[in-house]
Protein 1
Amino acid sequence: MARLTPGELEVMQVLWKESPLKPAEIEARLPRPIGNAALRSVLRVLLNKGHVKRAKQGKAYFYRPTQPAHSSFRQMAQKLADVFFGGSSLDLIAGLIKSEKLSDEDIRKLQDIVRTRNDPAEAHPPGEKS
Amino acid sequence: MARLTPGELEVMQVLWKESPLKPAEIEARLPRPIGNAALRSVLRVLLNKGHVKRAKQGKAYFYRPTQPAHSSFRQMAQKLADVFFGGSSLDLIAGLIKSEKLSDEDIRKLQDIVRTRNDPAEAHPPGEKS
DNA sequence: AAAAAAGTGTGGAAAAATCCACACTTCGTC
DNA sequence: GACGAAGTGTGGATTTTTCCACACTTTTTT
């Protein structure tokens, strides 16, 4: 499944948040102005590339992603790891922790996430805020 | 400074690892075949966009990035956070920790990284393996 | 100094991405 | 059934990306 161009990604971002949607609805949710016809051209390409599918309901087609956001996320994260960290996901995560601005609260949350990484069922202490 | 296309990114990836390099050297380090003239066209664009600069030495131009890898990395990471996590770097990191395959050893390393996040001078216990 | 080797400059072809105009179709409603 | 509103299909125009051919320049070698 071919790579997403910037314009295609904008549309997928909308559909991953909410779908199915018809063209006019997608257009209304895009953060920048684009014509209805231009948007439908992007959708046509996304359809050809297999990134979305559509179903007619009434007189309009409703579009939805064929793959969940998660799947594209992993693919793009892998690309980032490839380019900047020789493909190592661990180094990517480490690089982010070191370079992104994180509050003390964020650090605490991260510690918790890492700690429970291999035991998702781990219960949080009762009475905790988050 | 304009966005990097996929082809441009391939070249930048080489230059971030090692620079300055002349076109033939870059070409030799690219993972896929590309003609010398094609590569130089990409370099021309990168030059116009301001992503690389060059200096003549002997009869060849040597190219180097104008910005360190780190700066592009942060930009691309931010984009990823925008698309999939509403712009939250913390959620991006959390998402990676949850979705990437990490060994127990990796988890230990991560714990260490997070723990020393706000105190990079923190000394590791002597005699430690890593 | 001539030839060969190594590089460069540049115009533009080919394909992909982005955008739009315009004709046609479908649905509701008077 | 005729009309208007909402939607679709589609053929490009335009720009960007990717790639290459070819002529020219610079350096090295004989």
Protein 2
Amino acid sequence: MENCRVRFAPSPTGPLHIGGARSALFNYLIAKRFKGQFILRIEDTDVERSSRESEDNIFDSLRWLGLDWDEGPDIGGPYGPYRQMERLAIYKKYIQELIDKGLAYYCYCTEEELEEERQELIAKGEPPRYLGKCRELSPEQKEQFIQEGRKPVVRFRVPGNQEIVVNDLVRGKVVFESNGIGDYVILKSDGIPTYNFAVVIDDYLMKISHVIRAEEHLSNTPRQILIYEALGWETPTFAHVSLILGKDKSKMSKRHGATSVVQYKEQGYLPEAVVNFLALLGWAPEGEEEIFTMEELIEQFSLERVSKRPAVFDIDKLKWINGVYIRGCSNEEIRDLFIPVLQEAGHLPEKLSDRDYQWIQLVINGLQEKVHTLKEVLEHIDMFVGDQVELESEDLKKVLEEEQVPLVIETLKEKIKTVEELTPETVKTMLKEVSKETKQKGKKVFMPIRIAITGKMHGPELHSIIPALGKENVLKRIEKTVG
RNA sequence: GGCGCGUUGGAGAAGCGGCUUAACUCACCAGCCUUUCACGCUGGCAUUCACGGGUUCGAAUCCCGUACGCGUCACCA
């Protein structure tokens, strides 16, 4: 594959969607794999819905995922500009060329007329489409419409009785009939081109070799191919990746939960995990391994192993993958990840003291292996801080009423009071001594202690929790639960 | 409705005519490890590939039909 140039061309009408992120990733992987370029183009021709805010969100999300582009609106490149609204003059030229060649024409129909036509066709049981009313307008008629103040659109003249073949890298050969396509708008009445037109001009001018995008664009592809042909241009290679579905198998939407990349960031997912998960959405690795770094993905990814069937977004699998990455973090990495979460929740000050760092280390010891997302840390953090405890359920009282408990607790309290410093090591030996001196072992000693201190049956190791709390808090907690 | 795409266990997914008594992963269940949970390890989990026909010595794999799901038919991308 020589001169591989691929692009991700989102429209900035909202935060980067998880599906868009997957398209971007696939393009990125192909570009890196074949040592080509990954281009970012902003398709902002929907003036109503486009915003700079969304654009920034898209930039940020892509960068967060580690999908850096070689050419784009912010960094420029040899085929710019990379924002469609800045390319209006370019489109105008090609629109004119099509009009001059008689392959496109002005249409003065009003919305009402179009709607009427649509209703009539539906009433007759025919598929609604534009029938070409303005195809052969006389100069007089045109003049009259202009007098009336009508703003025309430009429509592409779709040739009849033609087979349009899309040779798709993931779907194979897909054939469409041109008769099923009505003359469609390529230039809106406000002088801005439509998607189906602008995308062709840009992909050609930007020398895009492979168009990798979501399946929802498959039905649009014949319209685009027609324009390539009208302009005498060679088409790029197409690859339509299936859609991402929610658990109920309908297209992934808000009601399935978080749909944008930022939301996953906010919920405490790691970019590496999201990338890994996204890669698995529609693509299947050859071997048994499912955990990949970006480098490994670049090495292994191929469009041949991208499935035709829709991919279902399985949040449980994302959580599992995220957990794998959290556990795989080095101590420094996980610390840098935990700190902002803890600070944001008010458990840590802006400026960290040595004591804070010691405490964080204990939290890491207790929770790194346990959580699937960074935010889950907050679900367990109460066990590491403060003198407040509450029994999780009434059932736990029974455990505290067992006969060996008073002795165990008394012995423990003594030890805590007399020990020089609470560290994981001193706590470990302390607990061993309590076990030995009270002649109790296993659950008989550890469960009451755990419940007395945390109010819960389960949680991180006691030798992480106890030093984190400190003598005073531990004793106060015990006081509250067992008196 | 027209056109297009898809349909393998609870979920994802491999499979490209015989090597499949259908990989692998998540989830689930059991056991082990462990002071609990988690982590980790071991084992279990589709007599069957939406359904009905056909082709073939042989089909999850090829063909046709049916059903279901989804996409698309915009002056949205």
